[in-house]
Amino acid sequence: QRQQLSGNGNIDMVAAVGQRWGQLRGVGILRNAAGVPILTADGLYTPVNNVDFGSSLPDYTGGVQSAMTVFKNFVININVDYSVGGKYFSLSDFYGNATGNFKNSAGLNDKGVPVREAVSNGGGIHSVGVDATGKVVDVYVEPRYWFEKNGLLGSNIAETSIRDLTFVKLRELSIGYKLPVERLGIGKYLTSAVFSVVSRNPWLIYVKQKGFDPSELTNASGENGQLPGTRSLGVNLKLGF
After folding, report:
1. How far does Cα 124 stand from its chain's mean position?
2. Which residues does the chain have with pLDDT short of 70?
3. Beta strands, E only, the chain
4. Whole-prediction pTM
C-alpha cells in the first residue's frame, strides 16, 4: 500500500508499507538484469513507470557551532551544518535539459566534436545499451531529440534528474571586536560592546552532485524550479548594560 504525500507532476513523494518514508517515485529507465539500459532502435531510453528512486530523508544530519576569542578582543563564531544521504528531484534540471539551456546539451562528445553538430558530421550524444532482445545498441543521437524525447516532450523520465542530498555548508561566519568601553569613556553606560561583521551562507563547502545547493530546497520532494540560494553580508552591534 502507498499513500501519496506530495508531487509536482514529474515526481511523487509517497509513503509505502515496508519502505522508508518519503520515497521519490516516478518514471525511470528500464534496464536488464545487469543494469544496462534497454534502448529503442534510435538510441532512446525505454521508460518504466512507478520506479522508487530512494527516500527524500537523509541518513543523518548534524552541525557544528564554535565560538572563540583570539587576541583577547576578537570574537569568531562559526556555524557549519551537513546532511548525508537522501535524494531529491530537480525540476530545473529536468526542464533545463529538455530545453537545451543546461550544459549537458552542449559541449563536446567523446569524439571531441560538439554534440550539437549533425550526427553525420561526428556530433550527437553517444548512446550505448541493449535492445529488448539483448543485442547491443551503439548510436549517436541528435541532442535536441535525445533530451526532448527522453524527458519533457516524450517519455517524461525523471530518473536522470534525481540528485543526491549530501552537502556540507558553512552556514554562518562572524568576526567581532570587543570595543574598549572604559577607554572610550562609555563604561558608566555599557558593560560591553561587540561590533561584528556577519556573513550568512558564505560557502557551500561540499556537495556530492554539483549544480544545485541542496541545503536551500523549498519543496518536500526537492528543487522545484526555485530561485538560487543567496549569501548575505551585514554588521551587528551587541551592547551589554
Report:
1. 27
2. 1-9
3. 2-7, 11-16, 23-29, 47-55, 60-70, 74-84, 87-90, 125-130, 136-141, 162-164, 167-178, 192-207, 222-223, 232-240
4. 0.82
